[in-house]
Specification:
alpha/beta; Aldehyde Dehydrogenase, Chain A, domain 1; Aldehyde Dehydrogenase, Chain A, domain 2; 15 helices; binds nicotinamide-adenine-dinucleotide
Length: 480
Amino acid sequence: MRENKMWIGGEWVGADSGKTFAVFNPSTEEEIGQVPLGGVSDVDKAVEAARKAFPIWSRKPQAERSKLVSQIAEEMRKNSKELARLDTLEHGTPIDVANMLTMWSAEMIEYAAEAARTLMGDVISAFPNTMSYYRREPVGVCGLIAPWNVPLMMMAAKLGPALAAGNACVVKPPSINSLIGLKFAEIISKVDLPPGVVNLITGPGGSVGNALSSHPHVDMIAFTGSTETGKAIIEASSRSVKRLMLELGGKNPAIVLEDADLDHAATILAEKQCLNSGMTCGSPGRIYVHENVHNEFLENFVAAMEKITVGDPNDPETAIGPVVSAEHRDKIEHYIKSGVEEGATLVLGGNRPTTAPMDKGFYVMPTVFTDVTQNMTIAREEIFGPVACVMKFSSENEVLDLANDNIYGLCASVWTKDIGKGIKYGNELRVGSFWVNQHNHITTALPWGGIKESGIGKEGGVEGLKEFTTLKLMCFEMPQ
Ligand code: NAD
C-alpha cells in the first residue's frame, strides 16, 4: 500500500511541501500511518490534470465510460476485505458493518454507471419551424469533498455519478480517514481511466478543501459534511459561481403517535440512533412522543438502547465501536454535560466506559435523555453521537410546529398505524426525506438530501446522477 503518496495526473506523488501528517486508530489511540500533507499547490496540479483529462473523458461514448466506471466497482469488490479492514482500523467501524458499507459503496458506483446509460435530453416545441432540445452534458471538473462519518461511501456516492456522467474529479477524503482514501485511489488506479480523470489529495479541509472550493477551474463542488463547512464552501465558491451539491447536518424529528406500535418504534429508533456510533446525519435527533404513551415508549426505548453492544470493532458481536476522534468524543461529552446542566433527565449512559478494551479509545456509551424541552442545546444542535433526546407532546399542531422549528430540514419520521395520518404529517414536515414506521431507511436507488440548512441538491439515485450534469439548450431554425 502506497501510504504516503497521493494520486495526481495518473502518478503517485508526495505533497509539494514534503510534509506528512499522522492518522490514528480510534479504538486504541495508536498512530497507524503517515500521509501526505497536501496543500494549495498540490490542488492546483490536480485541478489542471483534471482539466486536461475532461475533454478526453467527456467525449468518450457513454457505453465505454459506464464500462470503465463499473470496473471500479469490480475492483472494490475484489479488495473489499482490505477496504473493510481499513475502515475498522482507521474509523472504528465494526467489521460486519464495514464489510456491508464496502459492498454498498461498490454498488453505488455500479448503479451510477448503469443509470448513466439512460440519461436523455428533452425535445421542446417552442416556435413554429424550429426544433429545440436539451442536451445533457457533464459539468466539468468536480471537487468531491467527503466527511469522516462514512468515508468510503461518501467518496463513492459522489465519484460514481460524477465519473459516469463524464466529469473529471479531484477527491478529498476526510483528513482523519486518509488511509481508506488512498486505498480507494489505489483501486481506481487499476482501472484504465485516462490520466487525470480521477485525482485524490490528502490534507486538511481548511487548506485542501478551501483551495478546491475557491479554485477558478473547478466547476462544481459536491460536499458532505457539517453545515458550518458547507457555508464556508458557499462563500469560497461564490467568487467563481460553481455548481454546488451540499449534504449537510440534521436534527431529525421522529414523532411517535398514540396509536404507534411502541415496541417496534423503540427498537428501530434505538438502532438508528446508535448506527455508526450515532455519527449518522439521518439519525433521530429529536424523538417526540405523545404524552399518553411517553412512559411506555421510554421504557421500551431504554431497554433497546441497553441491548446495543459497544466494544472492539474487530469483534463480529460488536454493534458500535468508538467515535472517530478524541475531539469528537469531547464534543459529544460537552453536549451530555449541557443536557444535565439545562435540566434534562439522564436515564441511561452519559459516562465513559472503564473496562477493557474500552478503557482506551474514544468510546461513548448509548445515552438517553428525557424531559428534554425545545430550547435546550441538546434539542436544537446536532450531537452526532449515540445520544437520544426524548420529548413529550400533546397535540398534532403542537408537534408539527415543534418538529419544523429547527434550522435543519434533512429527514423525519412518524410512527402510527394510521397510514393516512402518516401521509398528512409527511406533507406538513419541512424535510428532504420522510418515513412512516421507519427512519433513515435508504438504499442506492433513493435520492437523499435535505432542505433549509441541511443542504442543496440530492445524492444517490437517478436524481443524484443528474446533479453532475448540466442542460444545454440546442435550437435549430429550419431553412425556409
Ligand atoms: P466537516 O464539515 O468537518 O468535514 C467534511 C469535509 O470537509 C472534510 O473532508 C473536511 O476536511 C472538509 N473541510 C473542512 N473545512 C473545509 C473548508 N473550509 N472548505 C472545504 N472543505 C473543508 O464534517 P465532518 O465532521 O467530517 O462530518 C460530520 C458532518 O457531516 C455532520 O454535520 C453530518 O450531519 C454531516 N453529514 C451529512 C450527511 C448528509 O447526507 N446530509 C451525511 C453524512 C454526514
